[in-house]
Amino acid sequence: MDYKQELITTIHDFGCNLDLLEEEITKLSEQSPTAVLIPALYEELERPALTNICHHLKDCSFIKKVIICLYAETREQYEKAVHFFSVLPQPTYVIWENGARVTNLLERIRDRGLDLLPLKGKGRAVWLGLGVASLQAEAIALHDADIITYDKSYPLKLLYPLLEKEFGIAFNKAYYARLSNSCPQMMNGRVVRLFVTPLLSALTEIFGYRQYLRYLTAYRYPLSGEFALTSDLALNTRIPGNWGLEIGLLAEVYRSIAEKRIAQIDLGVFDHKHQKVGNSSQEGLRKMCRDILRSILRTLTETERVIISRDLIHALKVKFRREAQDYTRQYFVDARFNRLAYDRHQEEIITELFEEVITEAGELYFSDPSGAQIPDWARALAVMPDLREQLRDATIADMEEATISNKLPA
């Protein structure tokens, strides 16, 4: 039995009674409202994963609000999305993040000296969604729209530790076994296994004991896109604007709250759609690795006062290769024992591709140490105090127009 605890609280699933937990969280949510936030591209509506997610959300009476932050190219796509999510019984807000009303709001903020328009992608979607969610929810769960294995235990497990006040938890992150649905099964989660894990080991070898590195290492799946946080934390957290969002968010949590208020929880076996490795460091998983390392280097400088040099980056590459090779051998043993498909040669090739981004990530850090950060909501509200309400009202207006259009005869 795995009882191991980390610097942060690890909540294992020892066969927990989900029905009993659901009864308890339903009562707790009456006093402490909850919301689920899903950033999504329109393309996700055409895949089965999001249909399954909606199917399970319909049965989650403990979720009081659903916020979808949608990137849609056309009004027709947005209207289809509003219709798609109309099956949910909870009050649902479909934010058209690149629509005219939201863009107009962001332009008005820009004219007052806070320009968020250049920061696009998942980071901005999360930022916008947290603004609306924090208006009416005390606890907010966030997850992606492409989860193949989704069921209602996911939001239940993410939210319950925040609602049980005796726990004192303000941030709860998911961990899981990333196994494919293919036959035979195979290990997924390549960036965590083949880059982040050996990278943290190599950095610890170079710098010795550093609290921030110990903190990151405590997360069993630091890149999971599933987490829950309190509305207060949501308003006071900067959101990374690049592909280092998950690791950058952990840095923000580290700065904002004590470790005893942070938890991670076991969601079991998990799978979603997968990114390609990419043909260069500008694409796919290689770009993700590059942005992750930039984020870690920046936070090490901010919190641990370490000096990052080109010699250090060179040493990091050398140490990373050895650590990655050792982990690859361990994954091979684990996979073979469990009769999982495992191409050791291909894994070695991927680690070598990931290693190549280390130098470039270092150079990008030297040229721009601050990185891409979306200011927290507290800063935005200082510029426009009713921004969240205006964003909510813009979303309601967009949805009303879409609903009218959906009702008109074709």
Labels describing this entry:
Spore Coat Polysaccharide Biosynthesis Protein SpsA, Chain A, two-stranded antiparallel ribbon, 410 residues, 8-stranded mixed beta sheet, alpha/beta, globular
Topology:
Elements: E1 9-11, H1 18-31, E2 34-41, H2 48-57, E3 65-71, H3 75-85, E4 92-96, H4 100-111, H5 122-136, E5 139-142, H6 153-163, E6 171-178, H7 190-207, H8 211-218, E7 227-230, H9 231-235, E8 239-240, H10 245-256, E9 262-270, H11 284-304, H12 310-337, H13 344-367, E10 373-374, H14 377-383, H15 387-407
Parallel strand pairs: 1-9, 2-3, 2-5, 3-4, 6-9
Antiparallel strand pairs: 5-7, 6-7, 8-10
Helix pairs in contact: 1-6, 3-15, 5-15, 7-8, 7-11, 7-12, 7-13, 10-11, 11-13, 12-13
Strand content: 5-15%
* SS-derived structural category: alpha/beta
Q: What's the structural domain tally?
A: 1
The coarse overall form would be globular
Q: How many strand elements?
A: 10
As a percent range, the share of helical residues equals: 40-55%
- Work out the oligomeric state of the chains in this entry: single chain
Largest sheet: 8 strands, mixed
What would you say the CATH architecture is? Alpha-Beta Complex
Arithmetic mean of pLDDT: 93
Q: Return the CATH topology.
A: Spore Coat Polysaccharide Biosynthesis Protein SpsA, Chain A
Q: Between the first and last Cα atoms, what is the distance in angstroms?
A: 59 Å
Uncertain residue segments: none
CATH class: Alpha Beta
H/E element order? EHEHEHEHHEHEHHEHEHEHHHEHH
- Give the number of helices: 15
Within CATH, the superfamily carries the name Spore Coat Polysaccharide Biosynthesis Protein SpsA, Chain A
